[in-house]
Amino acid sequence: MPVARHVMRHAAERPSRPAVCGPQGELTYAQLAERIHGAARHLLGRGIGPGALVAIGLADPVELLTAVLAADLAGATPLVGDPAWGRERWSSVAASAGPGFFVDAPLPGAAGPAVRHDPEPGDRAWACFSSGSTGRPRAIVRTRASWTESFPHLGELAGIGPDDVVLIPGPLVSSLYAFAAVHTLATGATALLPGRRPSRALPGLLARATVVHLVPHLLPEVLEHPGALRVAVVGGAALDPGTRAAAVRAGVRVVSYYGATELSFVAVDADGGGLRPFPGVEIEVRPGGGLGEVWARSPWLADGYLGGAAGPLRRDADGWASVGDVAEPYRVGEVLRVRGRGDGAIQTGGATVVPEDVEEVLRKVPGVGDIVVIGSPHPSLGAVVTAVIEAECATPPARALLEATARGGLDEAQRPRRWYAVPSLPRTQTGKPARALVAARLAGGDPDIRRLI
Fold first, then answer.
1. Where's the AMP-binding enzyme C-terminal domain (predicted)?
2. Which CATH class is domain 4-327?
3. Which of 102, 124, 361, 440 is most exposed by smallest CB count within 10 Å?
4. What is the CATH number of domain 346-451?
């Protein structure tokens, strides 16, 4: 997926065109290309080249992109993760992936001749962690072609070209925002990279941006100050029809899409008429009661998980893949109506949280007999992570202790926002907690489930 070769081409053709604008300033394509070359020479000097895995945990988005593209130019595979983890956490979550080199500070430049690497479509050119990597690391890896060859399709659907200025208002550890950044550079446009949600600076950024990539709950805030904006590319969760109508009133065209880190693009809604297959994608909804499971077959599928880690991605012998999302019955030519994750995964603010990963951490708290983590509906985030605890004795652990454990062992998106206790959890015939029944009882106001304050 990284696009070092594209950046070098743009640097030769339009050297003074702004490439990236981050917290520390702006770089032209010529300046960015020079920094990538220097950093790639540094990696090669350390013995990091084709076949190596480079773990990258940098907070500054421009430095992160430079390291990613330097690894690409050197022929290595960049593995992008949370810069807040630190070396000990990195060692834990990356153990199954086995990175050969860890970057937690901006790569220095090294002098020398231009670095040349002939990329191949099948190169493992990008890896990142799925949300919810605590306990069972899941580093997803994909080939270069699985993303770069989808670039022209997105460019055509959204009308993004080299003269655009693209705002990417989120951390590049998210595959959604990372894709937006490298797609922008491949196109030759300018990427505005604030690095985090730019609430105060948003009006100024939108005065310059013509395109924005974001998750649905951020779109209403953007529409308050649309500035020069003409297109919003929205992914990560369902888009509220009222928000799309507000975008129309603001003169902003919305292109929304459905997909997953493991599947990339699956379906797109470019005109408000509903989700239809993204170019090159075949879709099946396989029966399973009233709803069915979404399966996709396309050139955009990920290779899988590094180190053979387990995860929701499943494949069949005919090239179809699924991550357990469910949808209403579907026929070719119809609109796809996705209803959520069939495996209980929680979509919260554009992140996917796997409940079992949260439960694994919180079960270690003294006094927790068992626990179920579910998603509770939220008007702007889609859902919030909610924990329902079965105490070992009559008194459940203090909420302060539970929250301290969550802060110490979970990423921000994984931490429960709501906490409940119940005398005993309902269970399946096999003795496992019945997650769906817990959610139904909580939604129904069961008096036995009490809020922890």
1. 358-432
2. alpha beta
3. 440
4. 3.30.300.30
